[in-house]
Amino acid sequence: MKSTLIHILSTIGFFDVLSLLILCTPLALFFNLSKLDPTYWLSNFSTNHNQLTTKTLYEIYNANHNGDDEINEILTLVDVKDITSRKKLATLIDTIYNMNPIGIAVDFMFPSPQEVSTDRALVETVKKVKDKTFFAYMLKDFDKQSNSFCNSEHSFFLNPNYPEWFCDSVKEGYANMKNNGTSESVWKYSVVEKINNKKVFSLPAMLIGEECFNDYQPHESYIINYKRINVKKLSPDSLDYNKIKDHFVIVGSYKYSGDRFDSPLGMIPGMLVHAYIVQSINCDTVTEQSPTGNFRMTVTALLILIIVLILTDVFVYFLRIKCNYTFGAMIIDGIFPSIFIGIIAVVLVKAYSYHLLMDNNVFAHGQSAINGILIAAAIIKVIYTSLIIYLSRHKTCNRICSFSIYYKINNH
């Protein structure tokens, strides 16, 4: 009875599953499988796999966009167009302020004083609107060791070098884009950074309310939700009270500025990137765990893929020995695993990779994780089957190895 039970368990592969589980568990527990992905080693290049995957999926999602989406109810963009006069810009900001928005983000800077009369008009307006207006500034000189910026660049009325113009208690938010200062696509944002060990908040975060982000850690990155939005865009001569009252308003240059960035939507102005960041924050689009962070899922995926690879050998053995289909067996043995793993990869990527086509739950680095799991499965299968073949040649291990399906295939 005991020998019959052992025979049945070995026939259905219980020994193999248990052995593979012992091999898979420590690997999944202690090793980041995503590092097995070859594209992981290209991540220092501007065209890294995560950026391309994110961009491509959003391009697919937005391909048939016809502009008929529901109007965004929380955001309004005000395009300053070709206005360059600081006095006119001050008047524009003042007019928007008087229309009772929730907050105003001014997405351009005034680096240095120009003309006394126009600068005075701007400073007076800044003092008036500072309770709900946030001005952009730039963080500079990032230090990797301290994970902090060392310097910053401000508008002249917040620059200590111009004390005669200095405005106290004006709120700012950094406007840096996460493209590492290169021409690569902007697909991530941060909410909090550090400058000289002091936490500072981004322009979108200040607009929504910095108190919402006190628990966020500096320099953490989140994927921007580029699900296309139909955001209201006004010009200085078409300001609408109903489209500004109780809205978050971003003021900047939409068309005539060099402040443009590559994105999954093409080249877009910085103020629109900020709009998508506000959308990402407000719809709770966060970066969730990658599949390799889910231990049970990783071990299960590894086991399934390894067993499928071994069962392929069983099927080939059946065709070659029992049915004498040698040519067919060779084709299946050479082609089937690649096709099957390709299908599994597509299914897993769809299920566990970047959930960019949903309003919530964006998974980061999913593609890298899936590639790593597939490669790990192939490596473990080769090691395991080679080990069975090698150990079966020794009398002391022959009895144990005989419980393996692969032993039976190899020794027929």
TrEMBL record:
Ranges annotated as spanning the membrane: 12-33, 299-319, 331-349, 369-391
UniProt keyword list: Membrane, Transmembrane, Transmembrane helix
The UniProt record lists the keyword Phosphoprotein: no
Domain CHASE2 intervals: 49-309
InterPro entries assigned: CHASE2 (IPR007890)
Chain segments annotated as coiled-coil in the UniProt record: none
Protein name: CHASE2 domain-containing protein
Organism whose genome encodes this protein: Pseudoprevotella muciniphila
